[in-house]
Amino acid sequence: MRTIGTAVAIVAASASFAHAQEKVFGEVGLGYGRATSEDFDGAADTITLQGGAAFVSGAGLGIQLDGFAANTHVDDYGDLDTSYFATHIYGDFGRGKVGLFGGSLNLGEIEIYDVGSADLDQTVSTYGIEGQMTQGLYTFGGYLGSADIEGVDDVDVTLIGVGGDVALSETLQLSANYDSLSASLDGVDDNLDVNTLSVGGNYFVAAGDAPVRLSAGLSRSSASFGGETSNATSVNVGATLLFGGSRNANRESLFDSFRVPF
């Protein structure tokens, strides 16, 4: 509680002393990813529709709304629908911003081949603190949060992430991120730890008032529990339509404080 209270004070202070210009910017995009594991013969293909928008007042108080809807198809097994929606409230002080986030991940319909389908209707709530800082061509960010699983009281989940971008030119941007999920169960000595390192690139295509960002990335995930470790590799591509803000690689980034680390 002390950490959240401190974060609230920081948000209020940064908004009070900011000299921000009123601004509105956002994006909507479509992505495709393919994940393979050393311990699984098949692959998982995911199609994601995502979007987000932010508004910052002249006093430097910002609010961001974002979310995604995804369908994952696992070879020879079935399909799973997921969705996520989040709200971010933050203080914008020019070169950086800091605030709080809260979101809800919903596990929807699952279909298992030769068995049938069912609506899981399982919700995972996420919340925490986040920040972002820009220095020249570089942008750095991070978050610290927790997750609560609906109907489950004896599991504690911690979310941590850090990352950065660099604008090599007005059209080319490189990025790297590290995300970690650690889940502990009351009465169990071992934790479930999932760590993901991802790298990627963005290419900005100017198209009048609606520029497009083309992206590609590669990630490596490691999950460990009870002395056993499983690794997976993912590749992804996407196209995103941008509105508001800068139209090149120096564009201000939306908060991205829930990257599923697997």
Structural write-up:
This protein has 262 residues and is mainly beta. The protein has one domain (2-243): Porin (Beta Barrel). Helices cover 6% and strands 69% of the residues. It has one helix and twelve strands; from the N terminus they run αββββββββββββ. The chain has a twelve-stranded antiparallel barrel. Residues 1-10 and 14-18 have low confidence and may be disordered.
Topology (elements, then pairings):
Elements: H1 2-17, E1 23-37, E2 40-56, E3 61-74, E4 78-92, E5 96-112, E6 116-135, E7 138-149, E8 155-167, E9 172-185, E10 192-205, E11 212-225, E12 228-243
Antiparallel strand pairs: 1-2, 1-12, 2-3, 3-4, 4-5, 5-6, 6-7, 7-8, 8-9, 9-10, 10-11, 11-12
Task: Give descriptors for this structure.
mainly beta; 1 helix; disordered N terminus; single chain; globular; Porin; 12-stranded antiparallel β-barrel
The CATH superfamily appears as monomeric porin ompg
Rg result = 19 Å
Number of self-contained structural domains: 1
Count of helical stretches? 1
**Biggest β-sheet description:** 12 strands, antiparallel, barrel
- SS-based structural class? mainly beta
Gross morphology? globular
Following the backbone from N to C, one meets helices and strands in this order, namely HEEEEEEEEEEEE
Low-confidence stretches at least 5 residues in length (pLDDT < 50)? 1-10, 14-18
CATH topology: Porin
- Indicate the percent of residues in helices: under 10%
Q: From the 3D coordinates, which CATH architecture would you assign?
A: Beta Barrel
Strand content: over 45%
Residue-averaged pLDDT, rounded? 86
What top-tier CATH class fits best?
Mainly Beta
Strand order of the largest sheet: 1-2-3-4-5-6-7-8-9-10-11-12
